[in-house]
Write a structure and sequence with these properties.
By secondary structure, the chain is an alpha+beta fold. The protein has one domain: START domain (Alpha-D-Glucose-1,6-Bisphosphate, Chain A, domain 4), CATH 3.30.530. The chain is 31% helix and 40% strand. The chain has 5 helices and 9 strands; from the N terminus they run βββααββββαββαα. It has a 9-stranded antiparallel β-sheet with strand order 1-2-3-9-8-7-6-5-4, with helices on one face.
């Protein structure tokens, strides 16, 4: 386990697990995690912005984010909500086909050029555990393979997520 930006980071078989404690109740943490007005302020590493943040929060509903780097490069992300239990759990797919070509090229280099991005979806589970009014957030990304995991970790996914969680902690204080 590694400690990074106030979060615990574990790399497991086909998984990246990030855990952090927030000084806010699960209902507020869930709200800030899922409300587009808040998400566009905290999603992505520093100093990225989010000019597009659309959320259809229902099972089968889709999300669409576009992170923009400081030099203007866009990183679109889309996925589908699978399970939603407000204040407790959120499960969604992260559809690699929808991601930036740059990321697909890096993943293809790591996994093999014959990778079919139209069928690869990472599964993301977010657990909101109540610890006496605080929330232990556990973010687990399950990858299609260890090769995809290694490619994403190699692109500093853990660093990006833990920076997002730093911004998320601030957003909780102003929500």
């Amino acid at each position: 386990m590694t400690r990074l930006n106030n979060a615990d980071v574990e790399i497991k078989d086909r998984e990246l697990v990030i855990t952090r404690l927030f000084d806010a109740p699960p209902a507020l943490v869930f709200k800030v995690w899922t409300d587009p007005e808040h998400v566009k302020k905290w999603w992505g590493p520093k100093p990225f912005t989010n000019p597009v943040c659309e959320i259809d929060l229902r099972p089968g509903g889709r999300f669409h984010y576009v992170m923009r780097s400081p030099d203007g490069m866009d990183f679109p992300m889309r996925g589908t909500y699978i399970e939603i239990v407000p204040g407790k759990r959120l499960i969604y797919s992260d559809d690699l086909f929808e991601q930036a070509d740059f990321w697909k090229m890096v993943i293809g280099d790591k996994v093999g050029d014959d990778i079919d991005f139209s069928t690869i979806k990472n599964k993301v589970t977010v657990i909101f555990d109540d610890l006496d009014g605080k929330t232990k957030l556990t973010l687990t990304t399950r990858f299609a393979s260890n090769g995809v995991r290694d490619a994403m970790v190699g692109m500093q996914m853990a660093e990006g997520w833990t920076q997002s969680l730093e911004k998320f902690a601030y957003e909780l204080t102003v929500a």
